[in-house]
């Protein structure tokens, strides 16, 4: 097997730059053994950084780091629907486009499908948020660029878009927050990293779950107690305790579903506090900038007023004469 | 979903009907419309089913192919869903009009069938790490009368029940290369276990009430609906994928109610579907002809 020595990087909080070319089911097993399994679930968000208004090219933009997941969202003001593909609805249309940066994912083959999936889920999550009745016959384009993927992609994208929408001045019913939780071999992971999500994904987990076919005895025991595994993404709007989107995959008992749901709602609550603070700070910052601009305008007005006053006192001809610098050529 | 023009008065009428637990076609909120199911009608496919749920008409064909398994899951076969929205269903589907809806259906089916507990991918394994079956499940939507998710999943499950994989024997040649011999006898085949295959149940919220099996008109009236994928294992229902559609939001408690309703409906549907499929099989299914003499 090909193995490359792993490089440590301080910029990425000591995360390793991973360049393992081939993985086998055994590697997944080893990885699961190696990771820290949380004994008690702490329903708190990861270290988060949100910056609103990062681009000058569009009205609404936001950048968000959720742990090592880095996402940028861009919202342009609504524009008129192109006649040919109008769906006859009395609501505005939301189009979301999610794109991976070329360096964001190492599994390039799966990118187009994931983009499609994320786009459609994001559209569904944002539909209840935006007051779509305010721009009938208009469409709202929301673009998301994923710079780095370390799990919780969809929930981070939803959070980021929610902030960008507000920056763009699109009216929304509430603030939206989203988070992810998953369960794998009886361990609950909140905010799962990309590696943990990968374990769950594409029935890679399945091999481990069902056990190798040789262990028939164990299999029979397992059959009695079905091993649950699954991922839950919840987007919520706290004011009226509404859930904007819930997406679940995997295989879960209804009771486990409720358990995961409550964890995500808890995280959403604390994320909401953070987003609120970021937005109020943004408004304050905008206010300071506005004040400064006003002051500059005021100074300019004063200067002009002084000139006009001078003009009135001197009369037009004299004023022009006094302001013309002598041309060295005509003087000769 | 396909578009139906409804006036405010019509919407109010439907809404009031739902509140009274007496819908336009006389059903209660927990009733399904009559279904017609037929399996094994496409001779070119390995398995097929046609489902007619009132006005919704679905045709599913299953094709098989031999493929190489994913190195991470050497013991697993593959499934691929494809949905085609025929322009016969609605003029809206002309050209690429239906691609969004098709994409949504494909994603929810993929999501539901993703877990190895929902579909035992190991039954599709021929030689671990080398050869496996790949099933193409082609779904054709012939008419759109609402509740596509449920109809599509029912038809897909029936088609998978009907699927016959020819028996394959392998001979080991030199240098570890295996040669597959596929049985010529059409009766010499293996079947796919469908006990745990998930069914999608759409729970639709109209006004303050949740209902199942919405018609196209009711879909227009609903603010939000929830697609619950139910998989039965040892007589207990499991969730193998849920999501919300329809552009609305709902309260946590409403959502849990929807899931409960979906699970109980899925359980009943599953039971009935299995019963009907088995009774069809015994009545009109292929009978093995008696072999006479040395001719097989």
Automatic annotation (TrEMBL), chain A:
Keyword RNA-binding: yes
Main location (coarse class): cytoplasm
Organism: Drosophila albomicans (Fruit fly)
GO cellular component, one term: cytoplasmic exosome (RNase complex)
Name used for this protein in its record: Exosome complex component MTR3
Residue spans crossing the bilayer: none
Name of a matching Pfam family: RNase_PH
Gene Ontology MF, one: RNA binding
Exoribonuclease phosphorolytic domain boundaries: 46-170
Localization per Swiss-Prot or TrEMBL: Cytoplasm; Nucleus
Keywords: Cytoplasm, Exosome, Nucleus, RNA-binding, rRNA processing
Gene Ontology BP terms: nuclear mRNA surveillance; poly(A)-dependent snoRNA 3'-end processing; rRNA catabolic process; rRNA processing; U4 snRNA 3'-end processing
Similarity field: Belongs to the RNase PH family.
Record carries keyword rRNA processing: yes
Top-rank lineage group of the source organism: Eukaryota
TrEMBL record, chain B:
Compartments, record wording: Cytoplasm; Nucleus, Nucleolus
GO biological process, one term: nuclear polyadenylation-dependent rRNA catabolic process
Domain of life of the source: Eukaryota
Gene3D superfamilies (UniProt xref): GHMP Kinase, N-terminal domain (3.30.230.70)
GO cellular component terms attached to this protein's record: cytoplasmic exosome (RNase complex); nuclear exosome (RNase complex); nucleolus
An MF annotation (GO) of this entry: mRNA 3'-UTR AU-rich region binding
Keyword Heme: no
Entry keyword annotation includes Cytoplasm: yes
Domain Exoribonuclease phosphorolytic: residue ranges: 32-166, 197-263
CDD domains: RNase_PH_RRP42
InterPro entries to which the protein is assigned, alphabetical: ExoRNase_PH_dom1, ExoRNase_PH_dom2, ExoRNase_PH_dom2_sf, Exosome_comp_Rrp42_subfam, PNPase/RNase_PH_dom_sf, Ribosomal_Su5_D2-typ_SF
Keyword annotations: Cytoplasm, Exonuclease, Exosome, Hydrolase, Nuclease
Entry's family note: Belongs to the RNase PH family.
Protein name: Ribosomal RNA-processing protein 42
Underlying gene: LOC117571985
